[in-house]
């Protein structure tokens, strides 16, 4: 075990290790990997990246504690970390903030030091668990088994349950922002942050214009990325506002705005762990915020208590209103194992409609556009239903190569 007196020797060992890795990387031909070996290398180097990040952040925390940044010409440890690693001031600030919280969360600290957590995962877990330590184990399981987006959603649920006071509305309102700046290739870039209830209101209208842009493109035979249609929808929304709130020659926009809410949470006034209160595609909100939206004429509430509509079926292709309500009462997430996408989902017939000629809510599910395309156009098939409500999406069986 190294002591303080061994610091120079320890630093030398680290530098020697990094130099040897650099030398190996310069010489190694990655084309020598088979596909399977390349997957293994991605996993191994991914862990190495996480370990290196953890070591960097914890070292930077010590630079902060000892004010060693002063000898480098930097005014703060954040500036020193950002300039030394080539990261932004925001990323450096978040990393050091995470490091200061790790001391109160030993299990998260151990996972971070062992290379199990990325910087983004560690930041999400510490932000949620620091005020709700009982959630730490559950959030670490989510980090190990699911995508980052799903982990962030679980963390948001914890934070919403923890703070349902009026103060949190004031705090989040004060954090609202939207920035505009120059990007690559003479493009203009935007980044913003809105409270979830505000985001839900904005996105409900934006989605209407995005859907119209999608339909227009398809009617003209154009196929583009979904985010291109989102950009087209933003422009159309701006042009509609310029025209006085309605599109040229068209009717005013009437967006669909949905909130999923457990009746027990509504009656109690707050959501307990395992209960739902969210805007699908946006994220969790508190019950008080949901109640404040009751007066909105375009708001649909899907409440988890009432008539069982699982058996409702009809001969048409599209889901009717009651079936759509049943779908929305489920978790609004792509059902494919490992996907976790929660925005702009599509309704999928688990049994192809051309074969069944009926629409049964028990045979419908949510899929993102990518997973839906794999199934409908590229021959992928649904696997059996998992206990957590997800399904695998299995690639088509291909004949073995000749010989």
Tell me what the structure shows.
The chain is of the alpha+beta class. It has 16 helices and 12 strands. The strands form 5 sheets. The chain has a 4-stranded mixed sheet, sandwiched between helices. The protein starts with 6 loop residues before the first helix and ends in a 9-residue tail after the last strand. Mean pLDDT is about 80; it is low at about 1-5 and about 305-315.
Descriptive labels:
four-stranded mixed sheet; 12% strand; single chain; 12 strands; two-stranded antiparallel sheet; 403 residues; disordered N terminus; alpha+beta
Topology, element by element:
Layout: H1 7-27, H2 35-66, H3 77-85, H4 89-102, H5 106-113, H6 119-129, H7 136-145, H8 148-162, H9 166-175, E1 177-182, E2 188-193, H10 196-219, H11 226-242, E3 257-261, H12 263-268, E4 277-279, E5 283-284, H13 287-292, E6 299-303, E7 313-314, H14 321-329, E8 346-349, H15 353-356, E9 359-360, E10 364-367, H16 369-377, E11 381-385, E12 391-394
Parallel strand pairs: 3-6
Antiparallel strand pairs: 1-2, 3-4, 4-5, 7-9, 8-10, 11-12
Report Rg.
25 Å
Strand order of the largest sheet: 5-4-3-6
The percent range for strand residues is 5-15%
Number of strands: 12
Order of helices and strands: HHHHHHHHHEEHHEHEEHEEHEHEEHEE
> What profile does the largest beta sheet have?
4 strands, mixed
Going by helix content, strand content and strand pairing, the class is alpha+beta
Q: What is the typical, i.e. mean, pLDDT?
A: 81
């Amino acid at each position: 075990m190294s002591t303080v007196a061994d610091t120079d020797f320890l630093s030398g060992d680290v530098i020697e290790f990094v130099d040897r890795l650099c030398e190996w990387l310069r010489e190694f031909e990655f084309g020598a990997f088979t596909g399977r070996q390349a997957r293994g290398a991605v996993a191994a180097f991914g862990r190495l990246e996480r370990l290196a990040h953890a070591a960097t952040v914890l070292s930077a925390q010590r630079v902060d504690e000892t004010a060693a940044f002063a000898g480098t010409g930097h005014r703060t440890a954040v500036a020193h970390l950002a300039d030394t690693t080539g990261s932004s001031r925001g990323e450096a600030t978040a990393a050091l903030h995470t490091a200061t919280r790790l001391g109160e969360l030993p299990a998260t600290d151990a996972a971070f030091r062992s290379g199990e957590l990325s910087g983004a995962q560690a930041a999400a877990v510490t932000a949620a668990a620091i005020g709700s330590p009982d959630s730490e184990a559950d959030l670490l399981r989510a980090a190990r088994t699911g995508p980052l987006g799903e982990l962030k959603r679980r963390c948001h649920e914890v934070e919403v349950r923890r703070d349902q006071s009026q103060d949190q509305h004031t705090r989040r309102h004060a954090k609202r922002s939207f920035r505009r700046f120059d990007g690559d290739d003479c493009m203009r870039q935007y980044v913003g942050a809105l409270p979830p209830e505000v985001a839900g209101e904005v996105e409900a209208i934006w989605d209407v214009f995005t859907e119209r842009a999608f339909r227009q493109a398809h009617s003209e035979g154009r196929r583009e990325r979904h985010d291109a249609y989102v950009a087209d929808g933003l422009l159309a929304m701006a042009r509609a506002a310029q025209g006085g709130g309605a599109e040229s020659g068209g009717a005013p926009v009437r967006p669909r705005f949905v909130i999923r809410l457990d009746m027990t949470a509504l009656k109690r006034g707050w959501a307990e762990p395992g209960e739902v209160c969210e805007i699908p595609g946006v994220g969790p909100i508190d019950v008080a915020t949901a109640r404040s939206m009751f007066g909105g004429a375009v708001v649909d509430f899907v409440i988890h208590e009432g008539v069982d509509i699982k058996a409702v079926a009809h001969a048409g292709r599209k889901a009717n209103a009651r079936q759509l309500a049943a779908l929305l009462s489920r978790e609004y997430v792509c059902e494919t194992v490992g996907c976790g996408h929660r925005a702009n989902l599509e309704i999928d017939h688990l049994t192809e409609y051309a074969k069944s000629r009926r629409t049964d809510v028990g045979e419908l599910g949510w899929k993102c556009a990518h997973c839906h395309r794999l199934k409908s156009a590229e021959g992928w098939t649904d696997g059996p239903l998992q206990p957590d409500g997800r399904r695998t999406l299995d690639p088509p069986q291909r004949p073995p190569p000749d010989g």
